[in-house]
Write a structure and sequence with these properties.
Layout: H1 8-20, E1 24-30, E2 35-41, E3 47-51, E4 56-58, E5 63-65, H2 67-78, E6 82-87, H3 99-106, E7 109-113, H4 116-126, E8 142-144, E9 149-152, E10 155-161, E11 170-174, E12 177-179, H5 201-211, E13 219-221, E14 237-239, H6 240-246, H7 256-267, H8 276-283
Parallel strand pairs: 3-6, 6-7, 7-8, 12-13
Antiparallel strand pairs: 1-2, 2-3, 4-5, 9-10, 10-11, 11-12, 13-14
Bound molecules: fe (ii) ion.
Protein name: MBL fold metallo-hydrolase
Domain Metallo-beta-lactamase: 34-224
Organism: Novacetimonas cocois
């Protein structure tokens, strides 16, 4: 379990980097799954990262699509960016990743949090994935550990382990911009659910407080938006300061027990995401579809009476 506050060393890095390193962020929003894919780049070197991309999937027909991924590839090429990273904040349960498809077109290293191995173990068993499904994270080019620093061109960045929604969630802080996956949503909507296998509302609270210990002006980029009641437009960017003041679930002053009671009660009312089964089977493989069977066709399995 990570320290609940940002370590002193990490804080030093963050304070230095949030002062003058301002990456450019362009967001692509998938209205079918309410997912925000962010393309972030360093204007000085054109080094870029794609965070949490989406492959379309029609579950009734079993058909995949790459329209949004193609838009991202076009944007990267059109702006003369050099794709260095494809970052996943976690094994998503509501959409399929397009990271391997984008990587084929543009290169870059595919990365996720090191605790992916725990998620692979849980879902490898659930889907009876067999011995050919490696549960060591080897489908990814890099596994980030908590507090690990890296560079996006000339911009310093740090990976933070923020478990709760899943055991392996990561946030990536790149300059003054933090890509926080499924932790906080917009202040008027609240927080991510914590009831998937391996989820933990108490861990989520601690991860969120850790993110909220970043400087108040830190830009936060979210993985999803569902519009809050009374809001007509989708939004995916806010700040630490705005979340601390206004987040309906976890603004300053909300204690851990109060949050856990609220989150657990709310999660009990939520149904499973429509794309849970295909998403998890593909994303636990780093965005690759399950291997083809002897007839050359790939299949998605549905475990009966297990979830
Ligand atoms: Fe998620």
């Amino acid at each position: 379990m990570s320290d609940p506050v940002i370590t002193a060393a990490a804080h030093q890095v963050l304070t230095a980097l949030t002062s003058d390193k301002v990456p450019v962020v362009k967001t692509f929003f998938d209205r079918a799954t309410f997912t925000a894919t962010h393309v972030v780049h360093d204007p000085a070197t054109r080094a870029a990262a794609v965070i949490d991309s989406v492959m379309e999937y029609d579950p009734a027909a079993g058909r995949t699509g790459h329209h949004l991924a193609q838009e991202i590839v076009d944007y990267v090429r059109g702006h003369d960016l050099k794709l260095e990273w494809l970052l996943e904040t976690h094994v998503h349960a509501d959409h399929l990743s397009a990271a391997p498809w984008i990587q084929e077109q543009l290169g870059g290293k595919l990365a996720i949090g090191a605790d992916i191995v725990r998620v692979q173990d849980i879902f490898g068993k659930l889907f009876n994935a067999g011995t050919r499904f490696a549960r060591d994270g080897s489908q990814f080019d890099h596994l980030f550990h908590d507090g690990e620093t890296f560079m996006l061109g000339s911009i310093p960045a740090i990976a933070l382990h923020v478990p709760g929604h899943t055991p392996a969630d990561m946030a990536y802080v790149i300059g003054d911009a933090a890509f926080i996956g499924d932790t906080l949503f917009m202040p008027d909507y609240g927080t991510a659910r914590a009831d998937f296998p391996g989820g933990d509302a108490r861990a989520l609270y601690r991860s969120i407080r850790r993110l909220l210990s970043l400087p108040a002006r830190t830009r936060l980029f979210l993985c999803h938006d569902y519009k809050a009641p009374g809001r007509d437009t989708f939004a995916w960017e806010t700040t630490v300061g705005a979340e601390r003041e206004h987040n309906v679930h976890v603004h300053d002053g909300v204690g851990e027990d109060e949050f856990v009671a609220m989150r657990t009660g709310r999660d009990a009312t939520l149904s499973m995401p429509g794309l849970l089964m295909p998403s998890v089977q593909v994303n636990m493989r780093g965005g690759h579809l399950p291997e083809a069977e002897e007839n050359g066709t790939r299949y998605i399995k549905i475990p009966i009476d297990r979830v």
